[in-house]
User: Fold these one by one.
Assistant:
Number 1:
Amino acid sequence: MRWDDRRVVITAAGRDFGRTLAIALADLGAEVFLSARELTAARRVRDEIRRGGRQRVHAFACDLTSPASIRAFASDVAEHTDRVDLLVNNGSRYLAGPDLLSAADDDVVDTIASGATGTVLTTKGFLPLLLNSPAPDVVTMVSACGTPGHHRSDAHDAFYAAKSAQAGFVEILSKRLRPQGVRVISLYPPDFDNADPLSEEWHTTSRQAGDALSAHSLVECVLFAVAQPRDCFIKAFHFEQA
Ligand SMILES: NC(=O)c1ccc[n+]([C@@H]2O[C@H](COP(=O)([O-])OP(=O)(O)OC[C@H]3O[C@@H](n4cnc5c(N)ncnc54)[C@H](OP(=O)(O)O)[C@@H]3O)[C@@H](O)[C@H]2O)c1
């Protein structure tokens, strides 16, 4: 498929997987609207992409725990484009610690707000622009922690709650948006390694059967799903843990 006529929004692209995906999609020619909680982080990634030779990239601030910030992000993007072809709900705060008592209340609130409420409101905010696309897709980075019965992560219970809420949201959204032509595609990865896509390691990291899942392979899952003809609606990616 051609990426140079696709317009992509990615949340939490100031570091790690969001940055990786922003760089990969810009590299393929997509126009990228990336956000990070801090505008400086978003601009740093935008500038990295521009230095790599891709100029169609825009940086925004978006705090996923703030409805006003999410609304401002969507309306700022709408000043640049009348449609979005792909929304990537990547942002979600991680909270470690398998002991419920170990986290402060504020951290619990923040974790659930960024992952759960943030994903719902971001999708809501961008839906009008997605519906203007002839081929709209919503990709959400959930987690194996959002799979019923999963217990193998050391993540905090609040992170499990956030990811389970995301999973419930995309499940119903997938059915409800299908008649409008929007594919809701979700990934449920276990812990994965994220080599810097601008480093040599990106190309040399082993991706054999015994290796941990890599960000490189996850990027390829996203590209594969989105590249399918519209009758092929890949709803979810689940991964066998090593
Ligand atoms: N890495 C893994 O092993 C793994 C496994 C399964 C699923 N996932 C999911 O995949 C996605 C990306 O993973 P990752 O490894 O890149 O995550 P990460 O390293 O934990 O980074 C979290 C991202 O979310 C952002 N964030 C946190 N709170 C935010 C808020 N209130 N507003 C806006 N952004 C906020 C962070 O921004 P700041 O820089 O501002 O903190 C950061 O960009 C996440 O949804 C994650 O849960 C990851």
Number 2:
Amino acid sequence: MSFRRTVAFAVTLAFSAAAAAQGAAQPTAAPAPAASAAAPAAAAAVAAAPLKPGDAAAGQGKAAVCGACHGMDGNSSDAQYPKLAGQNEQYIARQLGSFKSSARMNPIMLGMASALSEQDMHDVGAYFASKQSLPGVADDKLVKTGETLYRQGDAARGIPACMACHGPDGRGNPGAAYPQLAGQWADYVQRTLKVWHDGTTWGSDDHAQIMPTIAKRLTDADIAALATYVEGLHAAVDGAAPAAAR
Ligand code: HEC
Ligand code: HEC
């Protein structure tokens, strides 16, 4: 399954990053002149990918059961449940697949994800992606440390800038299934970085090794500062980030 998605992304990204942001609809944009020299690759992708891009309208009904914890519009009110509003479809679908296979272990989400087909995962992903995440608040005392790490990393300690993958505004990168962090509950972010630091992974592929490798280099103080910074990220960079990023 992940191989299939990877192929689809490669095709999509070659056309446009903006198209990628809308999910994986774009394989249809590749005209794939039948039986041309390029056909083997294209045909393989098509044959392996009967999956349709997520349908937000179909996803709404399927997401009703999720609302009890994650909020009907994906803005959970309890910080132990991550916000899903505005999260990208690819990331949501990938995580649901990982819960279902227990690559990412969580007893509650194992139960929830087991009931979903791969198509359902994309549909609920598209539904939550269409919602707007509500900004949280950052702790003033920690924000400067968090911001510096987020934007610059710390080369001396081998910590990359979070911004490189999660975006200057924390919106993530849908084409690469890098999650949105902006507005996410600090408690959840802190807990997640901590379990990675302590050796948990969400699978064995390369994608799943990225964050544990980074988190091992973070101290508790770094984690606390980053967590509160990303929760407040909407407000913190509103308007200023694009200019600052140049
Ligand atoms: C009973 C509460 C509960 C319900 C209902 C529930 N979830 Fe979750 N969900 C959780 C918890 C707790 C976590 C955090 C797991 C962890 O810490 O790894 C989570 C995590 C997730 C994540 C990962 C988010 C991230 O940022 O990595 C996704 C995606 C998700 N849930 C989707 C769903 C969907 C879709 C449904 C409905 C089909 C659903 N959940 C229903 C409790 C719930
Ligand atoms: C090279 C790209 C890359 C960099 C740099 C990076 N991340 Fe990530 N991040 C990822 C990927 C990929 C995932 C999803 C992990 C998975 O699916 O197993 C992720 C997931 C996360 C999550 C979980 C989000 C959720 O909703 O559960 C947090 C929190 C996070 N990253 C924080 C950070 C912080 C803080 C930094 C900087 C210290 C950082 N990341 C740097 C790629 C990156």
